[in-house]
C-alpha cells in the first residue's frame, strides 16, 4: 500500500504540472485545432497515468478524474468551451481543481432556471447536509454483518447490497473531494448525486440525479455536437434520440476503460451492454413522450418504481458482474483492511506518545 500511495502522489504531481502547462499554453495559442494539438500530449499522458495505480480507492477514482472527466474538459477547453473556457476564469487556482476534479461551481441563478430543480435539500453553499452522508454510511455499516455471513444470505440480496455500496461509496467519495475543495477555495459546489432512488423515469435518473458531473461533461462534448449533426439529417424533432444514445455509447466505452484500469483484465463488454441497453430505453422513452405529447402520464409512484426496478435488474444482470470481474470485491476488502490496520497503528502510536508524555510530566 505504501508503494501505491507513493505512485498516487507522483501521478497527481504530474497532473498538476501538466495542467499548469495547459493553462499557460492557452494564453499564447488560440482556441481551435492548434490548441488541441498543443495539449494532445497531455491528453495521451492522462490515459497512461492511471496504469501506475492498481487500487479501487486511489486508482479507480484517479482514472475517473483524469482519463475521463479531465480529458473531456481539456478537449472542450481546446475549442474555448466547457467549464475551463476563458469566459469562466483565467485563474490557475480555479483552472486546476475544476479541470481534474469532479466538481461544479454552484450557481443559484442558473439552478432556478432548470425545468426540474434538485430534489435534495442543499445548504447555501450548494452541498448537502453532512447528516445526509452520515445516514448513508450507517446503512453500509449495517451491511457488514451480512457480508461476514454471506453464505447464509441469498446471493441476490448480497448483490443488491453491493449495488447500494457502490452508490454510497461513489457519492461519499465525491462529496469528500468536494468538501476539501470548498475548504481550500471557499467556493460553493453542487452535489454530484440527487437521490437517484427517487427517480421517476430513466431520463430523470440519468439526466438529473446520477453522477451529474458526467452528465454536465457529456452534454457539451457529445450530446450537442451529435444533435447538431442529426438535426440536419432527421430534423430537430427527433435529433435528441441519436444524441442521447451517443452519450450512452461514450459512457459505455469509458466505463470499460476504467474497469480495465481497476482489474487489468480483458473486457467482456457486459458494462457496454448495460449502457447501450439503457441508451436504447432512454431513446424509446424520449420518443414515446414526444409521440404522446403530454396526453398520457403514469403516476409518479408507478413510473418511479418501474424505472428504479429496471435499473436495479439490469445492474444485477450486466453492471455488477462486470465490476466483480475486475476483482473489485477482493480489492475493496483488502484496501479496507489496510485502512483499518493503519488507523490501529496510528492510534497505538498516539496512545504510546500520550502515555510517555504523561509519565514524563509526573
UniProtKB/TrEMBL annotation:
Gene Ontology CC entries for this record: membrane
Alphabetized Pfam families for the sequence: MBOAT_2
The Wax synthase domain, residue ranges: 190-276
Any single GO BP term: lipid metabolic process
Superkingdom assignment: Eukaryota
Transmembrane intervals: 6-24, 36-56, 62-80, 159-189, 238-262, 274-292, 304-325
Gene Ontology MF annotations: O-acyltransferase activity
Stored InterPro entries: Wax_synthase, Wax_synthase_dom, Wax_synthase_Magnoliopsida
Family label: Belongs to the wax synthase family.
Protein name: Wax synthase domain-containing protein
Organism, as annotated: Eucalyptus grandis (Flooded gum)
